Amino acid sequence: MADTQPKLLIGGEFRLVGGADPIPVINPCTEEVLWRAPACSAQDVAEALSHARKAQASWSNIHGWERGRILRSVAAQMRERTDRIARALSLEIGRPYTQAAGEVGAAIEQFEWFAGEAERLFGETIASRQGGRLVIEHEPVGICAAFTAWNFPVNLPVRKIAPALAAGCAILVRPSEQVPMTSTLIAEACVAGGVPDGVVQLLLGKAADITPAIMAAEEVRKISLTGSTRVGKMLLAEAAQTVKRCSMELGGHAPVVVCADADVEAAAVQCAGFKFRNAGQVCIAPNRFYVEEGVADRFLATMKAEAEKLVVGDSQDEASSMGPLTLPSGREKVERLIADALDKGARLTTGGRRPQGRNAGYFLEPTILADVPDNADIMSEEPFGPVAPVATFRKLDDAIERANSTPYGLAAYAFTASQGKAAALSRGLHAGMVGVNTFLIAHAEAPFGGIDHSGMGREGGREAIRDYQNTKLSHMMPA
């Protein structure tokens, strides 16, 4: 890649050097250093906050139609950069390059959707019973901060940047240390699209050097996190000190219920495709499979065949259909969960090992476990990797109860040909999103988010922009 140097963006200026030591970024396919990213110090964060205060005052007064025009321009700049962004994404997290461009396209849709939302920021006027008018208006909440994970390094920050800009908010973005180049290219698209100086700022570096100053700042009125439940709890506690508004997309452990009346083979094909996407490192990935007893063997045979078709390899190889896990700790966790399940009586159907002949990279074979008992750690702990534990059930109520047995509630899925069962599963599965005969639950025009330990707030759809606005009521009486 040409110009493959991550940069900070502070006050409209791209910088190659920050106040903290540069951070090396490791290619998960080769374990070699890709580049060294500049990192922010607390002083850099203080400067960014100063720029954000000035930018907030002006950006909030720009009409929604103009903000929408700029968002569409950013979308166009993202489209022009699709190849470069996809290449950076592929190198930094190990997703096959041939699959990376799809995420860029989804992010572009976010900018386009919220451009329309910016144009539709209408208030409401109600005739008052006491006389006069009740005028309801929506105002920007103020400076926002976004903290994002590495597994979808384009879509996750854009889901926060786009509604913030549409609502009239300046935003500070602190992405994962693993994806500085991908993040830099998004920031470049924002600047090239006409976003004014200081409205979007990119703060690369370690959380310990950046997050405390942001959380302590009174002028930061909203934070949005995509990350673990553990980190979410920490930020919620800190946000309480300055009464910041919070949106949280946290951990998940999505169940899948496969009924005997479903097209079992078609369901298994979908399950394998979505389970092993991004090497299983997807917050809404299907993680626990509950299959009706009479069709479990058919389901396992088809899913095994699909898993064994996957080509595990370097993300830059066009033949690869699944890359490595992004972090060595991720692979170690999955291997621990597999070993625990086998110790407790599960049966290895396929995979379970590091691929032969690969001495570098964090690769692991796509793995399917059968007859997994409910007390196996993998049935209560999110694996975030390419392993599918399969259990069986006899009665639908039992399957729903077991599916709801964790504190998480991000996504859930079901496969059935019965409208009655589909309705019962939609009602009964405890999650913010339910896919029936599909895994396609992420859309720019629809709300995305979880409940309970999986978080709060929504990204996408009409609901998302309200998290970046305050609602003001004025009772206007005649003089």
Walk me through the structure.
The strands form 5 sheets. A 7-stranded mixed beta sheet has the order 14-15-16-13-12-17-18, with helices on both faces. Strands 9-8-7-10-11-19 form a 6-stranded mixed beta sheet, with helices on both faces. A 3-stranded antiparallel beta sheet has the order 5-6-20, with no helix packed on it. Strand 5 and strand 6 form a beta hairpin. 39% of the residues lie in helices and 21% in strands. The protein folds into 2 domains: 267 residues, Aldehyde Dehydrogenase, Chain A, domain 1 (3-Layer(aba) Sandwich); 183 residues, Aldehyde Dehydrogenase, Chain A, domain 2, CATH 3.40.309. It starts with 7 loop residues before the first strand and ends with a strand. Helix 2 runs antiparallel to helix 5. It is an alpha/beta fold and 479 residues long. It contains 14 helices and 20 strands. It is globular, with a radius of gyration of 23 Å.
Quick tags:
globular; Aldehyde Dehydrogenase, Chain A, domain 1; 479 residues; 20 strands; seven-stranded mixed beta sheet; 2 domains; six-stranded mixed beta sheet; Aldehyde Dehydrogenase, Chain A, domain 2
What percentage of amino acids are in beta strands? 15-25%
Helix fraction, binned, reads 25-40%
**N-end to C-end Cα span:** 66 Å
The DSSP helix count reads 14
Structural class: alpha/beta
Low-confidence region ranges = none
- When the domains are counted, the total is 2
Q: Strands of the largest sheet, in order across it?
A: 14-15-16-13-12-17-18
Topology-level CATH name of the largest domain? Aldehyde Dehydrogenase, Chain A, domain 1
Cα-atom radius of gyration? 23 Å
Query: Going by CATH, what is the homologous superfamily of the largest domain?
Result: Aldehyde Dehydrogenase, Chain A, domain 1
Give a short account of the largest sheet: 7 strands, mixed
Number of strands: 20
**What top-tier CATH class of the largest domain fits best?**
Alpha Beta
